[in-house]
Amino acid sequence: MDQEAFPPVADEKCYQATLDWIQKRGVRLEEIAELTFFLQKDYIPDLTMEKCLESVRHVLTKREVQNAVMTGIQLDILAEKKQIEEPLLSIIKNDEGLYGVDEILSVAILNVYGSIGLTNYGYIDRVKPGVLARLNNHDGKQTHTFLDDLVGAIAASASARIAHSQSFDL
């Protein structure tokens, strides 16, 4: 990955914590890149997984993204440990359909990359391809109320970043 494509990280500690926490929750960056590829493959014929992974890593350098990811993961963990009071605990543990705060936290990520990211997010949040299906399975072992939406938002933002970087002959 060349230096021009990958910006310097303002706070290396937060960037590394974000990467570590995502991986500790069982998600590989390559899985997020697969979602990015899924979203853009029909529009960019020469798209590679390497380009998608580069875009995912770039999205994760943004402080707004790091803050949203760290906050969401911590809320999932607190819910697993039952360290949130009722009725909020049950709402988060059951990923209640009308809760919506998990999606709102993800919108903080999407706002960095514009309307393409938002429409991509809506689509993959509905169809739940790849890692999103696993994170959304509600098996009772781990709580991913926030993480599934955050992963979708990272992928959608990486996809929007790729779309914005394309030059089109009009």
From TrEMBL:
<feature type="domain" description="YutG/PgpA">
    <location>
        <begin position="32"/>
        <end position="163"/>
    </location>
</feature>
<protein>
    <submittedName>
        <fullName>Phosphatidylglycerophosphatase A</fullName>
    </submittedName>
</protein>
<dbReference type="Pfam" id="PF04608">
    <property type="entry name" value="PgpA"/>
</dbReference>
<dbReference type="InterPro" id="IPR026038">
    <property type="entry name" value="Put_PGPase"/>
</dbReference>
<dbReference type="InterPro" id="IPR036681">
    <property type="entry name" value="PgpA-like_sf"/>
</dbReference>
<dbReference type="InterPro" id="IPR007686">
    <property type="entry name" value="YutG/PgpA"/>
</dbReference>
<dbReference type="GO" id="GO:0006629">
    <property type="term" value="P:lipid metabolic process"/>
</dbReference>
<dbReference type="GO" id="GO:0008962">
    <property type="term" value="F:phosphatidylglycerophosphatase activity"/>
</dbReference>
